[in-house]
Amino acid sequence: MDRPETLAPVGRLQNDRVVECSDLEAFCRFYSLALGFPIVSRDASKCVLDGGGHQLTLRMRGSAGDPGKGPTQTGVSIEVERLHDVFEYLASDGVLFSSRPCCQPGGSVMVNAHDPDGNRIMLIQRRSNVPAWSQARCSGVALAA
Prior knowledge:
The chain is of the alpha/beta class. The chain has helices spanning 24-34, 83-92; strands spanning 12-13, 17-21, 39-42, 46-50, 55-60, 72-73, 75-79, 96-97, 102-103, 109-114, 120-125.
């Protein structure tokens, strides 16, 4: 995860989320460096990041205290502008994916990545942001990046 801190986030969260983790330090590094979300606050049991209008709270599994903003989840959704570029960058940086980016019904393109604990990170590029979406193979098969 050698992403320079000056780079913009890969996208923006779709809603507020709390994700429980086994290693707060590793999660803070992953979500702030690999995905580019700035750290807003941090203490011994949680790390709060700015997801571009929504808040991501990383919380040590089983910790007491304020649970954070949003429901506890095992994954997050991030809207991106250029999914294939983000996919290639993250894959080259060692982020694990379930598949290659695929067209969805309606023309959006998405792919699932995984954080250090295996929680799902859905990256999605909306139809309005997919160039030449009508020419893409949108049958659910993986598109070449």
